[in-house]
Design goal:
The protein is mainly α. It has a two-stranded antiparallel sheet with strand order 1-2. A hairpin with a 2-residue loop joins β1 and β2. The radius of gyration is 22 Å and the shape is globular. The protein starts with a helix and ends with a helix.
């Protein structure tokens, strides 16, 4: 039985990762254009190129981690040795040297590429750690819940503290100094959290055979892992659903709701624009979904929980299309409900990937946990990239013109970004999960068979 201290320690790892991931998603574009002075088109191209490379780099990390042997295990050493490089490169990414424009672009490419590589190098082993902390699928559900819970807490902390820190450090200095020092604080917090994750966790699940298969066999085993392929499709579809909704929110409130006319909304003396409040409430609702995922799935099963959440999200998303701009109460209520559904599926996905590693080990005798988790991480990054690309392409298709009054056709298209289009992603995700074969009963059988094999191999 895994103790609370270790569950919290495991959560620390994704809390650290999510802090920087949220900074990248929310602030890095505006930092590069408005603070560092890079052209927006150059930044967009850089993001595309580095994201493709980063996605391809994930399986490399997984392959190396699977072949790592230390007194601390396969995956925990990466938390120990890469915590400081993660923090330092994160700081360098937000430093603004006085270079020429060409030199600034080169500097941005180098530092952002290095940051994405060190992010993968620490995050892939961290994710893979779930598969070796416990052989019990139900305990993995709980661990996955702690992971996602602390991930969202990390996102909240980063978003709540970052801009106030930037403004505080910039008050008697430059804006550039404010950004750099704020990142220094976040980076120190991340390094400490990674060390906490290393210290509080333990690798328990040993492979049936200690000798590692050749890489070619690992890859062939993965390609023949049917449950993994199913989760791959479900995960990509779920990320498309999420990224389309997130990417279109500001457009929805700027051009359809026209939040400028409503002014700022004050909470405890802090000003919020309507779209920011909508996103913040979505984050809080995601946490509710994460908390509900383990108890519900342990009672009715992961597959039924996942399908139920996605079916409800589909229905709610379609209804969302018919809300008028002045129906803000209903818009926010449905954001909460849809976000609860969205938050509940990701701990289930990661837990099911760990089950796929068990299935593969029973079938082949080889446990390629790192490769399975890294290739799954790669697929989710591709899902996010597809959703982001679709948002841009479809905005152009609907005739969107920046900072202009939009046509009726464009407004209708923007409404579809938060309704019909993400519903396509949820429907596809349900279709994939409906054929997922690793039920709770089957996983219990696999767990027993693996334990017997490990017991015999120890003799």
């Amino acid at each position: 039985m895994i103790k609370l201290k270790e569950k919290i320690g495991y959560g620390f790892g994704d809390m650290a990762s999510s802090m920087f991931w949220k900074l990248f998603g929310s602030y890095l574009m505006i930092f590069y254009t408005d603070v560092f002075g890079l052209p927006a088109a150059v930044v967009g191209t850089m993001f595309l190129i580095t994201r493709i490379w980063d996605s391809a780099f994930d399986p490399i990390v997984g392959i190396v981690a699977d072949r790592t042997q230390t007194k601390w295990g396969k995956f925990r050493p990466y938390l120990l040795y890469l915590a400081i490089p993660f923090a330092l490169i994160g700081i360098f990414t937000f430093i603004t040297p006085e270079f020429s424009l060409t030199a600034k672009i080169i500097y941005a490419y180098i530092t952002y590429s290095l940051m994405m590589m060190v992010y993968s190098a620490i995050n892939v082993p961290y994710a893979s750690l779930l598969g070796v902390m416990s052989p019990d699928p139900k305990e993995r559900n709980v661990l996955s819940t702690y992971r996602m819970l602390f991930a969202y807490i990390g996102s909240f902390v980063a978003l709540l503290l970052f801009m106030p820190m930037v403004n505080a450090f910039a008050r008697d200095n430059t804006v550039q100094h404010g950004w750099t020092m704020a990142v220094v604080i976040i980076a120190i917090m991340c390094a400490l959290l990674f060390y906490g994750c290393f210290a509080f966790t333990k690798e328990r699940v040993k492979p049936i055979k200690e000798k590692q298969n050749p890489l070619k066999e690992d890859i062939m085993d993965l390609f023949h892992n049917k449950p993994w392929w199913i989760l791959l499709g479900a995960g990509v579809a779920a990320l498309v659903f999420n990224s389309i909704r997130d990417g279109a929110t500001v457009y929805y409130f700027k051009y359809f709701v026209v939040e400028e006319q409503l002014g700022e909304i004050m909470f405890f003396g802090v000003p919020f624009v309507l779209s920011g409040l909508y996103l913040a409430i979505g984050q809080a609702a995601n946490i509710i979904g994460v908390v509900l995922a383990a108890p519900v799935s342990n009672k009715i099963g992961k597959k039924k929980t996942y399908m139920g959440a996605m079916i409800i999200a589909t229905i709610l998303s379609i209804i969302f299309y018919w809300f008028d701009a002045n129906q803000l109460v209903w818009i926010f209520i449905f954001q909460v409900l849809i976000s609860i559904c969205a938050g509940s599926i990701f701990p289930l996905l990661w837990s099911m990937y760990a089950d796929c590693a068990d299935f593969s080990e029973l079938k082949t005798g080889n446990r390629a946990t790192g490769l399975i988790f890294s290739s799954s991480s790669m697929s989710q990054k591709f899902g996010w990239a597809i959703g982001s690309a679709l948002t841009g392409w479809l905005l152009a298709y609907f005739g969107f013109q920046a900072n202009e009054v939009q046509s009726a056709e464009t407004i209708n298209g923007i409404k579809m970004f938060l309704s019909w289009l993400p519903a396509v992603g949820t429907v596809l995700s349900v279709i994939f999960i409906s054929i997922y074969p690793l039920s709770e009963k089957r996983m219990s059988e696999i767990t027993v068979e693996l334990e017997n094999k490990r017991h015999h191999s120890d003799k």
